[in-house]
Design a protein that fits this description.
CATH topology of the domain at 33-139 and 152-197: Beta Polymerase, domain 2
Distance between the termini: 90 Å
Number of helices: 23
Radius of gyration: 36 Å
Largest sheet: 7 strands, mixed
InterPro entries: NT_sf (IPR043519), PolA_pol_head_dom (IPR002646), PolA_pol_I (IPR010206), PolyA_RNA-bd (IPR032828), tRNA_ntf/polyA_polymerase_I (IPR052191)
Function: Adds poly(A) tail to the 3' end of many RNAs, which usually targets these RNAs for decay. Plays a significant role in the global control of gene expression, through influencing the rate of transcript degradation, and in the general RNA quality control.
GO molecular function: ATP binding; poly(A) RNA polymerase activity; RNA binding
Catalytic activity: RNA(n) + ATP = RNA(n)-3'-adenine ribonucleotide + diphosphate
Keywords: ATP-binding, mRNA processing, Nucleotide-binding, RNA-binding, Transcription, Transferase
Helix content: 40-55%
Strand content: 5-15%
Length: about 550
């Protein structure tokens, strides 16, 4: 018979001491998996100080290395750190497959259809993106001649090594890896030289790179405009020759890159480069055609508005998509007087041409109609913002009470910076912005019907003046009388009132009667402010007294 184990058996080692010594070498490394990596030796100081790295990204790399995987910081974060800037986000590249990353981190979610990516979530909505090393599906540079074949990449699900992942990237400055364990920058593609020369250059043959993914031309323009770099001559020529290939890309992806161009802080230079390489008529046909027909004055006005948008973005203000695209339309009609008012200010805009231009963007650039309508409302509000201040009878009836007020105010600020006129209107509306109606902060209505009705009644004057300041007496209608009233089809209404305050204290009486229908139930109560009886109480109306008798 098996003897029950005692309490001391629970703490007795399962293996002899000599077996523990033999198995100690096969145990995982000591310490927690999420501990940050050890600092490099003193004789090899890190090229990037550890205090400039993101702590959560270091935790992700430490756990991947703890599970015997390669893991590096990669892409734009390494580029920005070497330039002395603060990265927007930190990306990690590893040899672990997406399923393995998901098994290592419980706070991880796999996304993507074309290529699976792992998003590791932290507090406050922070996300560290982890991608597996990839390589190009085929080495097309050796098999395809110039001008032959279709090089557009539609499937990119081929895993590779760290060097292959660096070589398959678009530009040399984005192909740098950083090993936090050794504190060294890993450069397989010569990105350090281009970074020091402030040059944007493709990895490999520029013609093949642009034909593989034509959106890379927009990315090259964005990096050159935001970082202040120049584009290599061979890369720019390849962009010019393959500009027409942008029409084959997904419209949603092209529109997303357009928003990034407007939000990069160098949109004025970016649109000059787009016009020079021939990509602007492809992604924004109406704008490209308009720039070719405008005179020098209107072109300068257009780029002045984009420069004002760049200053607003660099100031750290939160700019919506409506403001980004609205800045493209702010200059339209700036030189024409208002319709029907020849004596109006020549700088006052007329938005007829802008409306037609916006409609063309919806058709050609796949702009969502919701965003287009928001832009249209913000542009049309410019007339009200520029007019002299008028005293409104009710709060929330003017532009400050609308949902698009913040967009309209930012567009007014852009116009003031671009033209130098309208500063007084901007100061007036900026002072009123903190006191804007809550409807300008949320697009929905106040709430349910009862909440809106209570909000309207709050602080409202009584519908009818008080007829008496006597006490209020509650009268109960018997069940039989209520049933008789229901059978006759009469509506029993509840009359709400309250007793009047002390006349000497000057308080206003709130005894006005408010009627509301009450449906359902056999027992109803009715309250009213009746006249005082001889005994000081409320006098019961004759009909009600008869019902109680």
């Amino acid at each position: 018979m098996h003897e029950p184990s005692t309490k001391n058996d629970l703490f007795r080692p399962a293996y002899p001491a000599e077996d523990l010594e033999e198995n100690r070498d096969r145990r995982p490394p000591p310490g927690l998996a999420l501990d940050p990596p050890e600092a490099p030796p003193p004789e090899h100081p890190p090229e990037i100080p550890v205090d400039r790295l993101d702590g959560d990204a270091l935790k992700v790399i430490a756990r991947l290395r703890h599970m015997h995987h390669q893991a590096y910081l990669v892409g734009g974060c390494v580029r920005d750190l070497l330039l002395g800037a603060t990265p927007k986000d930190f990306d990690v590249a590893t040899d672990a497959h997406p399923g393995e990353v998901r098994a290592i981190f419980r706070n991880c979610r796999l996304i993507g259809r074309r290529f699976r990516l792992a998003h590791v979530y932290f507090r406050a909505g922070k996300v560290i993106e982890v991608a597996t090393f990839r390589k190009n599906p085929t080495d097309v540079a050796e098999d395809v001649g110039e001008g032959e074949g279709d090089l557009l990449i539609t499937r990119d699900n081929v895993f590779g090594t760290a060097e292959e992942d660096s070589v398959r990237r678009d530009f040399t400055v984005n192909g740098l890896f950083y090993d936090v364990a050794t504190g060294e920058v890993i450069d397989y593609v010569g990105g350090r030289a281009d970074l020091e020369a402030h040059r944007i250059s493709t990895i490999g043959d520029p013609e093949i790179r642009m034909r593989e993914d034509p959106v890379r031309a927009l990315r090259a323009v964005r990096f050159a405009a935001r970082l202040g770099f120049t584009i290599a001559p061979d890369t720019f020529e390849a962009m010019r020759r393959t500009a027409g290939e942008l029409a084959r890309c997904a419209p949603a992806r092209v529109l997303e890159e357009t928003f990034k161009l407007l939000r990069c802080g160098g949109s004025a230079r970016a649109f000059e480069l787009l016009r020079a390489c021939g990509a602007l008529p492809v992604i924004l046909p109406a704008l490209g055609a308009a720039l070719e027909t405008w005179d020098d004055g209107r072109r300068r006005a257009f780029f002045a508005h984009l420069a004002a948008l760049d200053r607003l973005v660099r100031s750290g203000a939160e700019v919506s998509e409506a403001v980004l695209l609205g800045a493209l339309l702010m200059h339209l009609g700036a030189d024409a007087p208002r319709a029907g008012r020849p004596d109006a200010d020549a700088g006052a805009p007329r938005w007829d041409e802008a409306d037609a231009f916006l409609a063309s963007l919806v058709q050609t650039a796949r702009l969502p109609r919701k965003v287009a309508e928001r832009i249209r409302l913000a542009l049309q509000a410019q007339r009200q913002l520029e007019e002299p201040g008028k005293r409104r009878r009710r709060r929330g009836r003017g532009p400050a009470g609308q949902t698009y007020f913040q967009d309209a105010l930012q567009l007014l600020e852009i116009r003031v910076r671009a033209t130098g006129s309208g500063g007084e209107a901007l100061e007036r509306w900026t002072a009123e912005a903190p006191h804007a109606h809550p409807a300008a902060e949320r697009p929905g209505r106040a709430g349910p019907r009862e909440d809106r009705r209570d909000h309207r009644r709050e602080g409202a004057a009584p519908r009818r003046p008080d007829r008496d300041e006597g006490a209020v007496r509650e009268v109960v209608i018997p069940v039989e009388a209520a049933e008789a009233a229901d059978e006759a089809g009469e509506e029993v209404r509840e009359v709400e009132s309250s007793a009047a305050g002390d006349a000497g204290e000057g308080e206003a009486s709130q005894g006005g009667r408010r009627r509301r229908r009450r449906r359902g139930g056999k027992r109803r109560r009715r309250r009213g402010a009746g006249a005082s009886g001889p005994d000081g109480g409320a006098q019961v109306p004759p009909a009600e007294a008869g019902g109680q008798g």
